[in-house]
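Throughout our pipeline, every protein is held as a single compact record rather than as scattered files. Such a record has a labelled line for the sequence and another for the backbone structure tokens. The remainder of this section carries one protein's record, kept here as part of the documentation:
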Amino acid sequence: LDVVVVCGDDVERSIPGGAEFSSKAFFFAGKKLVLVRKNEVCVFDTESGGMTELPADQVWLSRSPYDALKGRHIDVDGNLVAVLCDPKKTSDRRVAKVIDLSGAEPRIIGLGFPDATPSELVSIAMDAEGGRVVLASDRKDCLFHATIAEDAQFTKVDLSGHDSIDKSCAPIVRRGVAATFDATGTRKLRLVDLDAGAVRTLCGMGKSLRYFDFDGDRVALASDVSYGPPYEIRVGDASGQPAAPAGAGESAKYGKAGYAQRVALYGDELVFASGSGAGGIGKDEVLLVTDGAAWHEVQRDGAPLPAGDVTLGQHVLAFKTGKSRDARI
């Protein structure tokens, strides 16, 4: 990682020692950039230019988070960072911690001890607004959840009757509900009410990884209806079943309307979709948007805009564009 550009500013800020940090694992917490160097976590302040190395005896990732097929050991939401640590490396032997980056100096919050060995935990997820942390265990087929507080104890939610949890599962947690997927046959997206323990099964997924989005009110995913890839994008209220928005499947200049791989929810109505961006951007991978009434291709200079790996921040949409060998952000 060489430089960072803050939205609304055209100045490139160099990252001290940027070559040492992973280009596959970096996250924004407000205007601070969370970086990973092997198993270490560092924080770069884009405003002051200062770099803070979190003490290795307090924060040491249980696995270098470079492979999306192996779950997620670090998650960022708002100004908070949740991490799965290696208790053999940390002085307090805690496996789950939250780092608060809202102040001038990071504040490390050590959570309680879940009823699972570190090797059984494949992912961590967090809802900063709701004050909740969730751990996923593929071997015990369950979720553990706790409030964000020192020594907060974890509660177990058993999912053994729901085709277990996929080892690549990276849950999304919002308002006391976790969106996750199983490991048996065609992966199915599920919504888990953490307090009630109720599990609701939605539809099949076209891919594992993170080809779904959930904001507490709505859910969107790349379903198991496909031609190739791409996959039919389905959207719905969290209380109902997702369905293809109007116009899905109609022939378009590039592929079929409403078929893509990556999805991102915005506001109360909009859903953006794109290709995966893996291995370059294909000719049928363009930026799509729907308000539920119809799918539209986002255009530039009268032509659909090539797009892959779409993602949303605070009022900012980002994606890869260009040609396969000449991609830009």
